[in-house]
Amino acid sequence: MTPNDGEPDLSLVIGGVRFRNPVIAASGTFGYGREYQGLLTVSDLGGICTKGLTLEARDGNRGTRLHETPAGLMNSVGLENPGIPAFLERELAGMLALGPVVIVNLAGSTIESYAEGARLLDSSGAAMVELNISCPNVKAGGMAFGLDPQSAGAVTRAVRRALPHKPLMVKLSPNAPDLPAVARACVSNGADALSLVNTFKALALDVEARRPVFENLTAGLSGPAVRPLALRLLWELWDAVAVPLVGLGGIGSPEDALEFLLAGAAAVQVGSALFPRPALPTEIIRGIAAYMRRKGFSSLTDLPLRQQPPAV
After folding, report:
1. What domains appear along the chain, each with residue ranges and CATH number?
2. How far is residue 21's CA from residue 246's CA, in Å, rounded to a whole number?
3. Catalytically annotated residue among 88, 101, 135, 186
């Protein structure tokens, strides 16, 4: 939709990549896109983030992987994936054919494995890489890189050097003691955008078995319970960095998505709410457009409550 036909323009550009609208399927919740065909029109989405991909294949965590809470979902999947070479050979072409922007979520256990994965992706057809330094469900690497500004800067710098031809978005952890410092370190070392936030570190106990629910003890919490916390963190980062922010965390309705867009997000990612409501992205896209028509807004840049940072 464009202003030329009387409809609001939902398109946006992040790192030189144009999205038809600001609604992106979050990593780990949408597979490679084809899994949702027949449940919604996948081509309607602005983008799709792949599940977290590592240089080599991973089996993921043993034991319980998902656990529902009264207002959310805990997960400890452990980045099970076929590895980047297998993804490029078997999955990427099918994803590209779906239509939305393809964003590859890149994970790793060492800076070297992150960089080597980035090198492989740099020559691929994927539009963008989302650097995952915030996964709380793996024992090596994962969230550890995203908690400390120095570590976050080092891995971002290594990936940026290995990825000269594609925009780089870094996915941040809400568990960092000083998230603005981590964000600034990522941006100063080459991040073109930031997505926030990944899941919150949480604990569940089985009272009958008298043991933790998850073998790794803690797991990542997502869902409605975390949305106000994620929204606060995005609001606070608005003044800390001058790159596009992609908001996520508990978005389950058009109104939820609009909160993030009003707070300054350039786009939003929808995650765990897709499981019970796979057609939710379409509802959110339509809801954003209806809100903009009602308010007389012609483009997404009309939405933020504060002046946007300089274009990047």
Report:
1. 3-60+77-201+223-302 (3.20.20.70)
2. 12
3. 135
